[in-house]
Amino acid sequence: MPDKLTCLPPHDIEGGMTSGEPFTLVLCDQNFPPVLPAGEDGKCVVIIRVEDGFLSEIKSVFSDRFKRFCKPHGN
Questions:
Q1: pTM of the model
Q2: How far apart are CA 47 and CA 28, in angstroms?
């Protein structure tokens, strides 16, 4: 039986972002499932879970993880 806590096949977020492929990102607390398969290619929805996270904490985790991909406002 496959592990329900990992993506099959393995894939990275950065590869999809730099190639321009569309992806879905979910920012949530621990009440969302850790893996959500989406599509025939076996790739998963990108899920960032912060246990007991307030919105400000979840935003901070997102900003830290994706800061090199985010452009400053007004540019």
A1: 0.64
A2: 8
